[in-house]
Design goal:
The protein has helices spanning about 35-45, 60-70, 85-90, 90-95, 120-135; strands spanning about 25-30, 50-55, 105-110, 140-149. By secondary structure, the protein is an alpha/beta fold.
């Protein structure tokens, strides 16, 4: 089971020379909890890592989720709009484009309703867990933070 993220009271501030996201495993998919999106974006900047953000609050179903992620993460036009294609875009396609410094990924407001039920949400998060494992094998940080609507 993933170790929960806790924001310590001695969280690093910009300019202190401390590592952002100190104490958080480098390859994890975890609830956003105490973090705010701007803090995560700042951490990505400080760590010179890619920051990928998708607000999924208006999605009604799996296809909407895939369309919104593809648009907000600027996937190529040939993106297949299924979970396998999502995994490919988060791993192989990026890996083949050259060396990667790491990733901080945010999936905000994942819908939690009948048209995108618990099983569908878990399938989506499993794609990102598999991507985290893929990048861990290559010693590249991949931290994904999510929240539900």
């Amino acid at each position: 089971m993933d170790t929960p993220l806790r924001r310590s009271t001695d969280a690093p501030s910009q300019g202190t020379g401390e590592t952002p996201l100190k104490g958080i495993r480098p390859n994890i998919v975890q609830s956003i909890r105490a973090f705010r999106v701007p803090e995560l974006q700042d951490a990505a900047t400080q760590l010179n890592q890619h920051f990928l953000y998708a607000n999924l609050g208006n999605a009604q179903n799996k296809q909407d989720i895939l369309d919104m992620i593809a648009a907000q993460y600027t996937f190529p036009a040939h993106f297949g709009k299924n979970f396998d294609a999502l995994y490919d875009c988060m791993t192989d396609l990026v890996h083949k484009s050259g060396p990667q410094p790491g990733f901080i990924v945010v999936l905000e407001q994942i819908p939690a309703h009948a048209k995108f039920d618990k099983e569908a949400r878990e399938q989506l998060l499993d794609i990102f867990r598999d991507a985290a494992d893929y990048w861990a094998d290559r010693k590249i940080p991949f931290r994904c933070f999510y929240s539900f609507l």
